[in-house]
Specification:
Layout (H helix, E strand, L loop, with lengths): L1 H23 L2 E3 L9 H6 L6 E12 L7 E5 L4 E3 L19 E10 L4 E7 H7 L12 H16 L4 E11 L6 E8 L1 E3 L2
Antiparallel strand pairs: 1-9, 2-5, 2-7, 3-4, 3-5, 5-6, 7-8
Length: 191
């Protein structure tokens, strides 16, 4: 009887510890059924347009200036550009309003097998930041301060973050060669 009771309490304590760890994790994902994959395995995976889950530490962000984490956005043709002063889309000549911005930044994650830059953009950026609206961060000091705190907390977290990502390929303009990119999806801050 005492042995069963002891096992029961050991199991309950392990469950409590596991729930504390997941509650303390800086991020959470929608896809509980996907296994975690190492960055080394992701980088060598032969297929594109594939979803992965990974666990690692955020070691850097790009661009370095958090004020440039958002870009102007044209809802008509879905183009974005970095010059905040230009309000006419160069792709379709549509005039965009002052509030038309999207997130476009990168977190560099390390899991011990390698590093990988993970792009956070468009609606996935809003989802990742739990509904934070993309604004001109060079003019909105409150939003800039909030986002700066989030990035600092991610980069200094004692626990690794979890990410759901999808791979895709692009053609590099400089080399005209295919290159793999990785974008965060279905991932939320848990800070």
């Amino acid at each position: 009887m005492d042995r069963r009771k002891s096992r029961f309490f050991e199991q309950k304590n392990a469950e409590i510890d596991a729930s504390r760890i997941s509650a303390a994790c800086p991020t959470r994902i929608e896809w509980d059924n996907l296994p975690f994959t190492s960055i080394q395995s992701i980088r060598t995976f032969p297929r594109e347009n594939y979803k992965f889950c990974l666990r690692g530490r955020v070691i850097a962000h790009r661009p370095l200036d958090i004020r440039t984490f958002t870009r102007r956005y044209c809802a008509t043709c879905h183009s974005s550009w970095s010059d905040r002063n230009i309000q006419i889309c160069s792709s379709c000549a549509n005039t965009v309003d002052n509030g038309s911005f999207v997130f476009m930044f990168c977190l560099v994650v390390d899991d011990g097998t390698g590093e990988i830059p993970l792009l956070i953009c468009y609606d996935d950026g809003v989802k990742f930041l739990c509904g934070m609206k993309a604004v001109d961060l060079s003019k909105d000091s409150e939003a800039l301060s909030h986002l700066t705190q989030i990035i600092r907390r991610l980069e200094t977290s004692a626990l690794p973050a979890v990410f759901c990502i999808k791979s895709y390929s692009i053609i590099e303009q400089a080399t005209n060669e295919k290159a793999m990119r990785y974008r965060i999806c279905d991932t939320f801050l848990n800070l």
